[in-house]
């Protein structure tokens, strides 16, 4: 089952580069971003992946296979710490 999480921001979204750097600093995970496929990959576990992209100026969207992996958890926590909030019903 594919899960979709949308995280909104009051102002403009942080850049993908800034998000990746924050994930590294806060979680110790060194994510790899494949911009052409919008894939964020846990460098320590190649099966721990999610799609991460900017939906519009104020929304970041994550899609993943439904499992709450280390990378999904770290990405959500990082985005919330960066001032984001869940905009979907599943929050």
Strand-residue fraction? 35-45%
Name the helicity range. Answer: 25-40%
The secondary-structure element order is EHEEEEHE
- Averaged pLDDT: 95
Shape: globular
Radius of gyration: 12 Å
Number of strand segments: 6
Contiguous runs where pLDDT drops below 50 for at least 5 residues: none
Main sheet specs? 6 strands, antiparallel
Secondary-structure content class: alpha+beta
How many separate helices? 2
* Biggest β-sheet: strands ordered side by side in the sheet: 2-3-4-5-1-6
How many discrete domains?
A: 1
Alpha-carbon distance between the termini?
17 Å
Describe the structure.
The structure is a single chain. This protein is an alpha+beta fold and 91 residues long. The chain has one domain (3-66). The protein has helices spanning 16-27, 70-81, and strands spanning 3-8, 31-34, 39-42, 45-56, 59-64, 85-86. It has a six-stranded antiparallel sheet with strand order 2-3-4-5-1-6, covered by helices on one side. Strand 2 (31-34) and strand 3 form a beta hairpin. The longest helix is centred in the first third of the chain and has 12 residues, at 16-27.
């Amino acid at each position: 089952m594919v899960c979709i999480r949308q995280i909104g921001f009051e102002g403009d979204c942080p850049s993908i580069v800034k998000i990746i750097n924050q994930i590294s600093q806060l979680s110790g995970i060194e994510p790899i971003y494949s911009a052409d496929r919008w894939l964020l990959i846990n460098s320590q576990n190649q099966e721990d992946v999610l799609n991460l992209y900017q939906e519009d100026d104020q929304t970041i969207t994550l899609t993943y296979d439904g499992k709450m992996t280390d990378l999904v958890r770290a990405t959500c926590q990082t985005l919330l710490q960066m001032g984001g909030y869940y905009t979907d019903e599943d929050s």
